[in-house]
Amino acid sequence: MSFISQLYSLGLSGNVFTLCMHSPTGGGILAFGEALEPGLTYTPLLPSPQYYQVNLQSIAVNGQTLPIDSSVFGPSPSNFTFVDSGTTLAFLADGAYDPFINAIRAATPPSALPFTRENGEICFSTSTSIDSAFPSVELDFVGGAKMFLYPHNYMYYVKPSVYCIGWLRNTGRQVTLLGDIVLVDKILVHDLEKKRLGWMNYDCSQPINVTTARGKKYTNSGQSLHSITTTFTVVLVVVIYITLLT
């Protein structure tokens, strides 16, 4: 049983938690409670004992939907999509990787010079800000939910003027994993009670309005802790004491 589920069974927290990871300098918030910020978009969480699994239907680059068979995203026992804040980069289903890479390269200006690293990663040499030079990406989920992504949500810094695409091929598998690189600077609500995942773009260096198990609203400010992921320092907000005192 997860820590959140244990708190829920004791009546100390709702069966929901909110995560917001800040980039590029690290920091962020993990709060036991549901974010109350307006503008959250939700999609259903699919039944899964192991993953926060969602129903991804398509990917668009610069507003153009890519020619990808939606079945590679699932849901099925062998084809599925899930979010995982414990994984630094992202992995695309094998059948989705080439259309995605081809679309990014086609939309990249000639001034960004592509090359392939020894490990197979696609990289670019550019002196221009990646968010202004590279295309936007949109993930479309069941029910019309959309996640809008900036170039820094699929590219990562290697060294001055060099950036690589941080969405890797999941070779031989039709499984898509949306890791930290996709999720940074977003409020991410894991609502296990209503079986849904919510998100919105947000400056994660700022406080977030959340609710406690008893419906009380509060604004967390958190307390900095040591990094609990490979790349981000997370601010952990433990609201048990608030629940016990209210």
TrEMBL record:
UniProt-listed InterPro entries: Aspartic_peptidase_A1, PEPTIDASE_A1, Peptidase_aspartic_dom_sf, TAXi_C
Stored SUPFAM superfamilies: Acid proteases
Gene Ontology biological process terms, A to Z: proteolysis
Gene3D superfamilies, alphabetized: Acid Proteases
Peptidase A1 domain ranges (all copies): 1-200
Record-linked Pfam families: TAXi_C
Disulfide bond is among the record's keywords: no
Transmembrane domains' residue ranges: 224-244
Family: Belongs to the peptidase A1 family.
Full protein name: Peptidase A1 domain-containing protein
